[in-house]
């Protein structure tokens, strides 16, 4: 018997890939079925949120510092939320996981072996959905709905281009290259993110039901 009875599900992909929409829909579906489910989001730990905000605002973060702050955020959520919920028999849904660090921090020049050692304490997800779509499609979605880009979001800290929009395009292109390699390395479940939202969700649910025994996670209704 698995020492940790819960199941861990993660979504990854470029900004604009629709991964957050899909995992929220999955969360709602599982709750509607009466399953024990918990949701966790990247870079959301209260413990380090203030330091992250201050560092970004003053543009003080080096690639290594940026990586360590995110690792600290993740470790806090993992130890306080994710792992206890898994041990408690919950389905844990993560909007981004350690692979976000492997991709983004890798582009910023952090050593891949060092990054994997940094997250060596982390349990590998039972399913990692990778929402893959063409770079230009992802860029179009982001730029259409956002009046201005943020400094670190656009990769301006690594000097790809003096133009923030060109820097964003170059940065996201390099992140996509990392994700595509990670998909092979870690066996991601690739979802075509160019499909309509309901079609993607149908694929996500079908794969979920094929690999996860939902009956194990349905809560008993008190009589």
Your description of this structure?
The two termini are 29 Å apart. This protein has a single domain (7-212), classed as Rossmann fold, CATH 3.40.50.300. It has a five-stranded parallel β-sheet with strand order 2-3-1-4-5, with helices on both faces. The model has no long low-confidence stretch (mean pLDDT 90). The chain is an alpha/beta fold and 223 residues long. The protein has eight helices and five strands; from the N terminus they run βαβααβααβααβα. Helices cover 52% and strands 12% of the residues. Helix 2 (46-57) packs antiparallel against helix 3. It has helices at residues 19-32, 46-57, 63-87, 98-107, 112-118, 135-144, 164-186, 197-211; strands spanning 7-12, 37-41, 91-95, 127-132, 189-192.
Arithmetic mean of pLDDT: 90
Distance between the termini: 29 Å
Strand content: 5-15%
User: Which topology does CATH recognise?
Assistant: Rossmann fold
Question: What is the strand tally?
Answer: 5
Low-confidence stretches: none
* Biggest pleated sheet: 5 strands, parallel
Taken from the alpha-carbon principal axes, the silhouette is globular
Task: Output the number of helix runs.
Answer: 8
Helix content: 40-55%
Give the spatial strand order of the biggest sheet: 2-3-1-4-5
Q: What is the domain total for the residues?
A: 1
The CATH homologous superfamily name equals P-loop containing nucleotide triphosphate hydrolases
Radius of gyration: 18 Å
Q: Look at the helices and sheets and give the structural class.
A: alpha/beta
* CATH architecture term: 3-Layer(aba) Sandwich
């Amino acid at each position: 018997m698995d020492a940790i009875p819960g199941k861990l599900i993660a979504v990854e992909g470029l900004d604009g890939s629709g991964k957050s929409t899909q995992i929220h829909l999955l969360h709602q579906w599982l709750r509607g079925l009466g399953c024990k489910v918990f949701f966790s989001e990247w870079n959301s730990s209260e413990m380090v949120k203030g330091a992250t905000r201050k560092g970004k605002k003053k543009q003080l973060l080096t690639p290594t510092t940026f990586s360590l702050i995110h690792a600290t955020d993740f470790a806090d959520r993992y130890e306080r939320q994710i792992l206890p919920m898994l041990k408690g028999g919950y389905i844990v849904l993560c909007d981004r996981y350690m692979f976000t660090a492997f991709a983004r921090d890798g582009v910023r020049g952090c050593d891949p072996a060092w990054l994997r050692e940094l997250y060596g304490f982390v349990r590998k997800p039972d399913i990692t959905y990778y929402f893959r779509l063409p770079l230009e499609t992802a860029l179009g979605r982001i730029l259409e709905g956002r009046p201005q880009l943020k400094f670190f979001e656009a990769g301006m800290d690594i000097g790809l281009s003096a133009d923030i929009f060109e820097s964003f395009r170059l940065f996201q292109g390099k992140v996509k290259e990392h994700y595509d390699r990670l998909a092979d390395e870690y066996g991601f479940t690739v979802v075509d993110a160019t499909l309509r939202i309901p079609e993607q969700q149908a694929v996500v649910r079908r794969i979920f039901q094929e690999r996860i025994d939902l009956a194990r996670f349905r809560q008993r209704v008190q009589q």
